[in-house]
Every structure is written in C-alpha cells, then in structure tokens.
C-alpha cells in the first residue's frame, strides 16, 4: 500500500513540477534578466494588464514602415542607478538604426515592481535614418 501511495505522490509531484515549470505566471527580478529575445508578431505574457506586442515601433526619422525588425535581442548593460540600460540589436540595412528604445515589463505585483512577470517584456523603439539612409532616401520625412 505504501508503495502505491508513494507512486501516486511521485506522479502528482512530477506533474506539478512539469506543468508548473511551463506556467508563465512567475516573477524574476528585473536586474537579473541578462538578455531578452523579442519577436515581431508575438505578444507579451500578462497577469494584471492586457498583453502587448513584444515589438512596437513608436516613430523615428525613418518612420515605422521603413524597416520592421523580425527579431530583436536586447542585452542588459547594467544600471545607471535608476534604470537598467539596454542595448538592442537586430539585422538591419545600414540606412537605419535604432533611435530611442524602451524596454517595458509588467511589474509582478504592482507597476514599478522590481520583480516582473516572466515573458512580459516588450520593446518600444524608434527607427532613425543614418547619414547613409538620409543620402539614399532623401524623401523620407
């Protein structure tokens, strides 16, 4: 009987660990995130607020239609004492570059929480023209 009970408990614990590990409803300290890989067309995880696109262009000198990144990788460069400084990269033509970037994550318990919901981070960015872009695309505002 104890053998059967132990087997049932082991199966229950295994199922809990297996399915619990894939559950995105857990937190991580924002400063512990080293790299984010964000994809065009994918949405963030959400817990307290609606999901948003992982990648969202919000302007720039090239405009949002000039170049649409498919995958962006952002690396945590450390903190300035107030906020984490991110460096974001993608494959793009030399005519374009990221301008202003802002990594935004959902605070786990409240806005501004230093612990964030895993998978909730997104990037808002500007696409700017480089000098080469200005020379080659003079009609883009």
From TrEMBL:
Signal peptide, first to last residue: 1-20
Alphabetical list of InterPro entries matching this protein: SARAF
Keyword Calcium: yes
Bilayer disposition of the protein: Single-pass type I membrane protein
Coiled-coil regions listed in the entry: none
UniProt-annotated location(s): Endoplasmic reticulum membrane
Main localization of the protein described in the UniProt heading: endoplasmic reticulum
GO cellular component: endoplasmic reticulum membrane
Keyword Magnesium part of the UniProt annotation: no
Keywords (A to Z) from UniProt: Calcium, Calcium transport, Endoplasmic reticulum, Ion transport, Membrane, Signal, Transmembrane, Transmembrane helix, Transport
Gene Ontology biological process terms from the UniProt entry: calcium ion transport; regulation of store-operated calcium entry
Family assignment from sequence similarity: Belongs to the SARAF family.
UniProt name for this protein: Store-operated calcium entry-associated regulatory factor
Organism: Daphnia pulex
């Amino acid at each position: 009987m104890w053998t059967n009970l132990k087997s049932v408990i082991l199966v229950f614990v295994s199922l809990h660990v297996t399915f619990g590990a894939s559950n995105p409803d857990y937190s991580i300290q924002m400063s512990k995130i080293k790299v984010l890989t964000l994809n065009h067309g994918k949405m963030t995880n959400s817990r307290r607020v609606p999901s948003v696109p992982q990648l969202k262009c919000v302007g720039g000198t090239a405009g949002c239609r000039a170049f649409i990144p498919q995958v962006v990788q952002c690396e945590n460069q450390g903190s300035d004492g107030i906020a984490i400084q991110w460096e974001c990269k993608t494959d793009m033509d030399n005519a374009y570059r990221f301008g202003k970037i802002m990594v935004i994550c959902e605070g786990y318990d409240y806005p501004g929480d230093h612990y964030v919901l895993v998978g909730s981070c997104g990037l808002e960015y500007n696409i700017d023209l480089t000098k080469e872009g200005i020379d080659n695309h003079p009609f883009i505002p």
